[in-house]
Amino acid sequence: xxxxxxxxxxxxxxxxxxxxxxxxxxxxxxxxxxxxxxxxxxxxxxxxxxxxxxxxxxxxxxxxxxxxxxxxxxxxxxxxxxxxxxxxxxxxxxxxxxxxxxxxxxxxxxxxxxxxxxxxxxxxxxxxxxxxxxxxxxxxxxxxxxxxxxxxxxxxxxxxxxxxxxxxxxxxxxxxxxxxxxxxxxxxxxxxxxxxxxxxxxxxxxxxxxxxxxxxxxxxxxxxxxxxxxxxxxxxxxxxxxxxxxxxxxxxxxxxxxxxxxxxxxxxxxxxxxxxxxxxxxxxxxxxxxxxxxxxxxxxxxxxxxxxxxxxxxxxxxxxxxxxxxxxxxxxxxxxxxxxxxxxxxxxxxxxxxxxxxxxxxxxxxxxxxxxxxxxxxxxxxxxxx
Length: 386
Ligand SMILES: *Cc1c(COP(=O)(O)O)cnc(C)c1O
Prior knowledge:
about 375 residues, Aspartate Aminotransferase, domain 1, Aspartate Aminotransferase, domain 2, 14 helices, 12 strands, globular, disordered N terminus, binds pyridoxal-5'-phosphate
């Protein structure tokens, strides 16, 4: 490919002036790849928000009602991302509404400060709990965990049970069962569901199955500003989270101060969330399927490869074109294919393997027509004519 232009034609001037080239993002809602794109309605709402001052607390309360309604929760507010929601949820479970404790974090000595976390749920975002001052107490093994192991991990020092739900993550038992065990032991349950929507049903799922607080990314499948997150749940805990974020006493900036969302962010997320809940998700899904089918159709007959449409696997974010490398394959290995895709112009980023060393082309951020560019490049690379 010789074009020096972005995938959809002109390079937007703001990027051209900085000398940064747009890429094709077939790797999903990854922050490192730009996250997601906002609808014009969201951008317009943000622009409008920027024309007047409001009291942030009043705006958060009103926005929180929209978030809470969408999630079936009591209350909520907008944070600076799902990672920020994790920090605030852990902080809230340690401090409750005690101002002295809120001012003291991340020094959590003398507080209930242990977050119990299934070993198979360990992931690079669990540092978020430690940033707040908590200690992670893992339970079970990486591949399985039993109710008695969870009960043994819970002590009088436990402040929360954390539950992570993400693509390709293994769960030791149904969420509701684990939440029940935590509650029987007097421990609140916090959930990181950052990338679990769509499907839209996951907005209400965790609260209805027993979560006390849940965090989601605003800038992934919901299509809000990249730097936003949702935090929803039980009133007392969410209020404690807010105090750890922007305390109403004007004393020390707390451990969650860096979780800030601006008035524009808040309005943008509310707008995106309302659009998301009104969206015909079946139609969006069908559009992704057509794009994935295009790539599968173009590569299906490559000997040594199994190229298939994966649709309906809850571990995958929407329909994907997946390339499995069979034993007879003697072309470039998956890593070489990925680097060749990244080295092209425009650079193309695809998903890392989920079950093995496969290549998955994730459609959620692939703009209309880009599936052809991806198929062209994959044909060149896989046929060795690159
Ligand atoms: C993406 C992700 C996060 C971070 O979300 P941000 O909104 O980017 O802060 C946290 N946890 C999980 C499981 C994620 O997938």
